[in-house]
Amino acid sequence: SAAIAMEELAAIGVNTFIRVGTCGGINLNVKSSDVIIPTAAIRQNGITNEYAPIEYPATANFEIVKALTDSAEILKEHWHAGVIQSKDSFYSQHDPNRMPAYYDLKNKWEAWKRLGVLGSEMECAALFIVADSLCVKCGAVLNVIWNQERKLKGFDEPDDFSTDRGIKIAVKAISILMRNDKNIKSLKTENNINCLFCTRSGASAKGYFNFDSKNFTVLKGSKIAERIRPNFKTSIGNYKLRQKLERNGTILNLIFQTDFIFDSPSMAASIILGSSANGWDEWKNEDGITLKELLKK
Fold it and tell me: Residue 191: is its pLDDT beyond 50?
């Protein structure tokens, strides 16, 4: 159900997700009432196999992890960041001996303990993998309600079913992410010619030129020309770069799935138009003034 929700929210334009949930501790340093901010999740589930090969790791978005850890520090919460286990079955963990596959369950649990896995829950791996497949960002903050391994060692600590800590950390993290996004947009406005368009040969791209670095950023959602002209294949570097961007998912179905920085306006224009191009003339503002003319001003 979490994967379905993410699919449908992404379809209407949501691009940032934070899961607030609960978990049980595995590592002995993790106590009830602590908070775990996962950096990655063990894929001990079924749904992720329908999205990615098993070799592909389920990792949280770094930007969100950073915002969550910064938030936890500001709020003075006791937090841990690291790998967690995501499983499909609650009772396979809490009553493994009655399961026909008990030997596998117990051996894996022992492996997770030896590897220092922080905790166990049931959603994050699926969300991280689905997020990557949709080119959206996802992270999580988990309230530790108990740690069965600490109980087995004789530690006396009460269970804590409150989710307040995780909610507060997530809300503060969202404000941090919004502030960072605002700062980036402000930087674009102050240090760049914003915004420029390239709309020839079926392309519909948008981007900006950076005065300081002299590079050019093409923005997410830009559309490239479908047809590749013969003269483009003679430009080996640009031709191979376009192929690479299409292979690694930066460009999917002719659309940029994320912002991408090119070394120059001409490189950006060539990739987008599928032909040799002079970016100083191809990139224009909404009034039709070329980048070359704008720089003269």
Answer: yes
Reported as half-sphere exposure (CB side, CA atoms, 13 A), residue 169 has a value of 32
Question: What pLDDT does residue 193 have?
Answer: 59
Q: Count other C-beta atoms under 10 Å from residue 177's C-beta.
A: 20
d(CA 155, CA 146): 11
CA distance 155 to 18: 31
Whether the predicted model's global pTM rises above the 0.85 cut: no
How far apart CA 126 and CA 46 sit, in angstroms, is 9
Contact in structure between 34 and 27 (CB atoms under 8 Å): no
pLDDT over threshold 50, residue 217:
yes
- Largest separation between any pair of C-alpha atoms in the chain: 77
Distance CA 144, CA 68 (A): 16
Dihedral pair phi/psi, residue 244, rounded to 5°: -65, -45
Q: Which amino acid is at 95?
A: D
Predicted local confidence at residue 187, as pLDDT: 45
